[in-house]
Amino acid sequence: MRRLSRTLQELLEEFFRAKDGEELVFEGDQDTLKKLELVLRVLAQETRIEGNRLLVKKRRP
Known about the structure:
The chain is an alpha+beta fold. Helix content is 41%, strand content 23%. It contains 2 helices and 3 strands, in the order αβαββ. It has helices at 6-17, 30-42, and strands at residues 23-27, 47-50, 53-57. Strands 1-3-2 form a 3-stranded antiparallel beta sheet, with helices on one face. The longest helix has 13 residues, at 30-42. The mean pLDDT is 90.
């Protein structure tokens, strides 16, 4: 069984605490941001990576 890295888990918790319509910026290493982007895309979120930042505007899936 694989577990989420602590950083990825914390970033996901921050996403779920955000309100609908809120714009979020996540910073981290490329590997963690790519994993987070995959999860958020499954949740029908529009994402954009710029350098070491992942930009997301939270919306209901």
